[in-house]
DNA sequence: TTTAGCACTCAAAGAGTTAGAGTGCTAAAT
DNA sequence: ATTTAGCACTCTAACTCTTTGAGTGCTAAA
C-alpha cells in the first residue's frame, strides 16, 4: 500500500461520487493530478480490489468503492472543500439572525441542508438539560382528576392529567403542592431521575398513599422533558436516489426506525455512519452525516443529513460543520431572553 | 342499456379487481352467472365502451373499467360481502375492549385496516366539539411570562406561554382570571370563535391594554382544540401498488396534500372518492374510502383507507362500516369516565 | 338477437447481433 | 524493478427481428 494507490483510491471515490458510474482506469489516468498510465492504474486498482477498498459490479465494468473504501476516503483521504464567503453568507441568511428562536434556528438549518444537499435533513431540538424547574403546579380539574404542570426556566411546558383514587381536600392538596415545590423547584433537568421520584413516592405515600399517581405523573413528565425530539425533513429527496430502496425509505419516513438510537451513539465532532456499519437502521446503502451543536458549551442537539452512500462528503461536511458552529454560537449568545412559541396537547 | 350489460359490467369490474389484468370476453363467458357466448359479450362490451364505462389499454387487449365504470359499480352494481363472525371477532380483538383509550382505539383501527386491506389507513381523531371548557387558568411563571391553561370536559389539555409588556399585579391577574373564567367556563368547543375572542380582547383592553396577548393566546389554544388531527399510517403499502405513481405517493406521504380538504367535504355514511373526481388530491388513480364515526351520536372523526382505484370494494367497505360502527359504539358507551393518556409540549 | 368462425392487431417475450467500455495479461521499454 | 503499450477477452446495454397468444371486430349463419 503506497501513496500512489491511496491517491488512486481517492480519485476513484471522487469520480464515482461525481458521476455515479463505475470508474475505469482510463478516466483516472486523464485526471490532472494523476501522471501514470492507465495500465499502471489498472494494476493498482486490482490491488485495491484485493485489499477490499474497491469492487467491480461485473467483470468488464469500472470500479466502485466498497464500505471500507468510503471509510478510508472519509477518514484519511478526502480533501474537504472550504466554504467560500458567499456560501457562508448564504447559510447565515438562511439560518436567521441572533434573535431567531432556537426552534426556528434548527428548522432553518434543516431547510438549508435539504436544499443544498438534496438529501433528507435530520435535526434534534436542544434538550434543556441545564435549565431548571421553575414552576410546578397541581390543578384540580374534575372529580378525582388533577392536571400537573411543569415549567422549566428555558420555557418548556409539560402537562399531564392524573386520576386519583380519592379526591384531595384542600389541606392535602396544599401539602402536596408545597412538598413538590420544595423538592423540585430549582432542580436542573439533568438531575431529575427515576430514583429521585421513587424517593418522593415513598415520602408522599407516608402522608397519603393515594398521592403517588401524582408523583408518577411528574416522573413521566420529567422523562418527556429530557427526551430529545427528532425531526427529519425533506425525506422525499431520498426517493429520488435510485441507490436507495424506495420501500425502505418510506418505512423509514413512517417510523424513523433506529435513527434515534443511531444519534444516541454519536459523540462530539462531525461523524459519518454507514447503514452497513450499524444494525437496526432501516435504509440500506445510506449514509448519515451528523454533528452535535452546543449551547453554552454543552452538547445540546444534533444536526445532519441522511443520504445515499454516494454523497458529496467533501462539500457537505464543511456545510454541516459551519452550521453547527454557527448554531452553537447563536444559541449561546443570549441565554436569558427566552422566546416562547406555542405548546399544546390533546387527550381524550 | 339492459340488465345483461350491467351484469357484464359488474363481472368485468369484479374480474379486474381480482386479477389486475384487462379482462376479455372469453374470461367473462366462463363465469358461472354468465350464460351467453363470448361473441355476445364482445358486443355488449363494445357498447359499454361506447357508453364510457369500459376502456381498452390497446386494441388487442381486454377491457378495464373507467372512472364512471367504477362509480356505477360501487353505487349500484356491487354486492358487498357480509362479514363472517370470525372476521368480526378478529376486528374486535384488534380494536381492543371498552376500556381502550379513544386515541388508541383509532390507532388500532388504522393498524387493522392497514393489515387487512394492504392499503394506507387514514384516520382523524375525535374532535371534542361538544365538550365544554371546564377550566381555564393563568399562571405567572417568570418575569412578564404567563402560562395559560385550557382544559375541556373530555380531558383535552392545552397550554401556551405568553409574554406581556408589563408584569401584572395581583389585582390585575385576579381580574383577568375572573373575567375569562366567567366568559369561557362551560362554553362548548363548538361555540368558540374568533369573533368571540375579538370581543374579549376589546373588553379586556378597556381594563388594561396589555392583557390582550393573553386573550390572543387563548384564542390560539381554542383553535388548536378544534383542530382535527389527521394520521396516515401504513403508507408504505401504496408503494407496492404499481397502479400508483411512486413519486406522487411519496409527495403525498410527505405533505398529505389535499387530504384534509377531501375529508372535510365528506358527509355521513360510507363514501368512496376517486382522485380523478377531486382536484388537488395528489395521487392519481387512487381511491379514498372513508366513513365517519360518531361519539354520542355526533360526528366525531373519520376512518378509512387510501388505495389504488382497483381495490376490493366488496370486501373493504363492510370492514370499514363495521369498524366505524364499533368505534362509535365504544366511544359512546361510557362518556363519563375519561381516560387520560399524556400530554406534553416543548418550547425553547 | 345470438353465436360461430375467421382474419387482423398488438404487446410482451425471446433470440440474435452489435458496439463499446473496461479488464487482465504479456512483452517491451525505462 | 517498474511502468507502459498492445492485444485478446468479457460482459452489458441497446437494438432489431421474430414469435406467440390473447383479444378484438366483422360477417354470415342459426
Characterize the structure shown.
- Chain A has 348 residues and is α+β, with helices and mostly antiparallel strands.
- Mean pLDDT of chain A is 89; it is low at 335-348.
- Helices cover 44% and strands 19% of the residues of chain A.
- In chain A, the strands form 3 sheets. Chain A has a 5-stranded antiparallel β-sheet with strand order 7-3-10-9-8, covered by helices on one side. In chain A, strands 4-5-6 form a 3-stranded antiparallel β-sheet, covered by helices on one side. Chain A has a two-stranded antiparallel ribbon with strand order 1-2.
- The relative contact order of chain A is 0.13.
- Chain A has 12 helices and 11 strands.
- In chain A, helix 5 packs across helix 12 (313-333), helix 6 (102-117) packs antiparallel against helix 12 and helix 8 (194-207) runs antiparallel to helix 9 (212-226).
- At the A-B interface, strand 4, strand 5, strand 6, helix 9 and helix 10 of A face strand 4, strand 5, strand 6, helix 9 and helix 10 of B.
- The first copy, chain A, binds a DNA duplex (30 and 30 nucleotides) through helix 3.
Amino acid at each position: 500500500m503506497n501513496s500512489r494507490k491511496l491517491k488512486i483510491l481517492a480519485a476513484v471515490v471522487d469520480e464515482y461520487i461525481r458521476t455515479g458510474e463505475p470508474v475505469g482506469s482510463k478516466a483516472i489516468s486523464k485526471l490532472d493530478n494523476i501522471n501514470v498510465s492507465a495500465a499502471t492504474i489498472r494494476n493498482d486498482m486490482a490491488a485495491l480490489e484485493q485489499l477490499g477498498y474497491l469492487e467491480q459490479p461485473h467483470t468488464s465494468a469500472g470500479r466502485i468503492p466498497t464500505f471500507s473504501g468510503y471509510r478510508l476516503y472519509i477518514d484519511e483521504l478526502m480533501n474537504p472543500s472550504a466554504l467560500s464567503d458567499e456560501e457562508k453568507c448564504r447559510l447565515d441568511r438562511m439560518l436567521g439572525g441572533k434573535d431567531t428562536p432556537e426552534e426556528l434556528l434548527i428548522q432553518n438549518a434543516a431547510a438549508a441542508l435539504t436544499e443544498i444537499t438534496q438529501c433528507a435533513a435530520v435535526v434534534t431540538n436542544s434538550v434543556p438539560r441545564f435549565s431548571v424547574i421553575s414552576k410546578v403546579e397541581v390543578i384540580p380539574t374534575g372529580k378525582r382528576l388533577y392536571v400537573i404542570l411543569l415549567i422549566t426556566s428555558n420555557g418548556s411546558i409539560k402537562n399531564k392529567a392524573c386520576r386519583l383514587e380519592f379526591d384531595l381536600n384542600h389541606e392535602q392538596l396544599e401539602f402536596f403542592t408545597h412538598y413538590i415545590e420544595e423538592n423540585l423547584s430549582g432542580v436542573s433537568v439533568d438531575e431529575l431521575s427515576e430514583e429521585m421520584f421513587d424517593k418522593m413516592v415513598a415520602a408522599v405515600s407516608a402522608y397519603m398513599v393515594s398521592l403517588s399517581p401524582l408523583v408518577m405523573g411528574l416522573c413521566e413528565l420529567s422523562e418527556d422533558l429530557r427526551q430529545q425530539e427528532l425531526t427529519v425533513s425533506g425525506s422525499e429527496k431520498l426517493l429520488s436516489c435510485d441507490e436507495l430502496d424506495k420501500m425502505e425509505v418510506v418505512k423509514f419516513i413512517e417510523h424513523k426506525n433506529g435513527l434515534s438510537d443511531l444519534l444516541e451513539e454519536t459523540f462530539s465532532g462531525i461523524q459519518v455512519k454507514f447503514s452497513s456499519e450499524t444494525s437496526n437502521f432501516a435504509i440500506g446503502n445510506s449514509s448519515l452525516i451528523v454533528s452535535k451543536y452546543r449551547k453554552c458549551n454543552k452538547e445540546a442537539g444534533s444536526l445532519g443529513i441522511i443520504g445515499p452512500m454516494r454523497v458529496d462528503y467533501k462539500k457537505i461536511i464543511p456545510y454541516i460543520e459551519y452550521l453547527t458552529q454557527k448554531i452553537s454560537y447563536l444559541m449561546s449568545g443570549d441565554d436569558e431572553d427566552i422566546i416562547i412559541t406555542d405548546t399544546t396537547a390533546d387527550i381524550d
